[in-house]
Specification:
The chain is α/β, with parallel strands linked by helices and 421 residues long. Helices cover 29% and strands 23% of the residues. It has twelve helices and 23 strands. Strand 10, helix 5 and strand 11 form a beta-alpha-beta unit. Helix 1 packs parallel to helix 3 and helix 5 runs parallel beside helix 6. It starts with a strand and ends in a 6-residue tail after the last helix.
Length: 421
């Protein structure tokens, strides 16, 4: 457990690691390519290491050289391991790789932590079955552990429910080029977290695979396409940048995160728009985005497409005048923790008014007090509530090492916000 001390520099410039979402997707595209790929500026964290480990068990050679991953593509011909693959609590790894293992012959079992075994994946399994792949939940509850019997990806039409996760769609899109026939996907419900689908399609395009789309309702990928080997670079992670932009908002200071741009397809860059609406000043410069804190006021915002930023904005809202309403975020209940309940519980402990509903969170700003924060083994809870400690004495974070899931050097970067004493 660590205690956060108030006190921050008036102006700071920080850098954050490469995007977790892009790293997962580029690792998979490189692993399915027909030759050697170099991935520069990848995020090396617990989650991305899980994806890397799984790809290795499927027969893909991956090595690390400085700030670069070298991947020998398999051309979509994967080896099914004889043992179950443990994916920990990496939801991205579980969902994307549940489809990738369909390219390996024979049955592959994917399992994970107790929390992972509570996270629903049945809609993706239904999609795989429609493509001719036998996929099932071994406990019959629609959650991991799952068994996928690969080697029979026939393709065709799929009706897919994406109310829980956009990753179900991303997973099928990534393997679609290897189907025996064209894959056509119709989204029947949802789609939450739309920018992550845009990111998937962008990675596919960069690696030479074309996809057709009609908005966010219909997608099609021709069979026989190949992922192109080459050198690729991962852009900075806007989810991680968000903590530092939020720090500027809470403390009224000036913080720039280098390597970020408002043109990014990462949906979490939209946190800057929320902060601007709350009273901050947002400036895009040649080398990054700067946020300058101001007098904060409550807002109403739909965060269906940037769920990872909900805990961050909720903590900012605790310091704003009036009520902030965060809408359309029911899917946060199926994250590393039940994030809606976790955020509401910890804010309430701080004396902040919170109304947690089925698909929204209402936060009434006030004067938060210092408490011990339970993190629920959830990296985003730890990092978001650490921000409150920059303003409020007595904030202590339990299990601070859980940030290793997505941002291993978070505390090092965080400490750069403090003035030298």
């Amino acid at each position: 457990m660590i205690e956060i001390k108030p006190g921050i520099v008036k102006e700071a410039t920080v850098s954050v690691p490469g995007s977790k979402s892009y790293t997962h997707r580029m690792l998979i595209a490189a692993a399915l390519s027909g030759g050697w790929c170099s991935i520069n500026n990848p995020l090396i964290s617990e989650d991305t290491l899980i994806t890397r480990k799984c790809l290795g068990l499927l027969g893909v050679t991956i090595s690390e050289e400085g700030n670069c991953l070298k991947v020998q593509g398999s051309a979509g011909r994967l080896i099914g391991p004889d043992i179950p693959i443990d994916l920990g609590n990496s939801g991205t790894s579980m969902r994307l790789l549940a489809a990738v293992v369909a390219l390996a012959r024979g049955p592959v079992t994917l399992t994970g932590t107790r929390r992972m075994r509570e996270r629903p994946i049945q809609n993706l399994l239904d999609g795989l079955n429609q493509l001719g792949v036998t996929a099932r939940s071994l406990n019959g509850d629609g959650c991991p552990p799952i068994e996928v019997v690969g080697g029979h990806l026939k393709g065709g039409k799929v009706a897919l429910d994406c109310r829980i996760s956009s990753q179900f769609l991303s997973a099928l899109l990534l393997i679609a080029p290897f189907a025996a026939q064209k894959v056509e996907i119709r989204v029947t419900e949802g789609l939450v977290s739309k920018p992550y689908v845009d990111m998937t399609l962008e990675v596919m395009e960069r690696f030479g695979v074309a996809a057709e789309r009609k908005g966010y309702e219909r997608f099609a990928v021709d069979s026989g396409q190949t992922y192109r080997s080459g050198t690729y670079t991962v852009e900075s992670d806007c989810s991680q940048a968000g903590y530092f932009w939020a720090a500027a908002a809470i403390t009224g200071t000036d913080i720039k995160v280098t390597g970020t741009t408002l043109a990014s397809r990462q949906g979490d860059v939209r946190l800057t728009s929320c902060l601007k609406d709350m009273g901050c000043r947002v400036v895009e410069e040649n080398d990054g985005i700067r946020v300058v804190g101001g007098q904060l006021k409550g807002i109403t915002v739909d965060m269906a497409d940037m769920p990872d930023m909900v805990p961050t904005l909720a903590v900012v809202a605790a310091f704003a005048r009036g009520k902030t309403v965060i809408k359309n975020v029911a899917h946060l209940r199926a994250k590393e923790s039940d994030r809606l309940n976790a955020v509401a519980t910890e804010l309430s402990k701080m004396g902040v008014g919170v109304d947690c509903r089925a698909d929204q969170l209402q936060v009434t700003g006030g004067k938060p007090k210092g408490v011990v924060i339970d993190t629920y083994a959830d990296h985003r809870i730890a990092m978001s509530f650490a921000l409150a400690g920059l303003k409020v004495p007595g904030i202590k974070i339990k299990d601070e090492k859980c940030v290793g899931k997505s941002f291993p050097n978070f505390w090092t970067v965080f400490n750069r916000l403090y003035a030298v004493k």
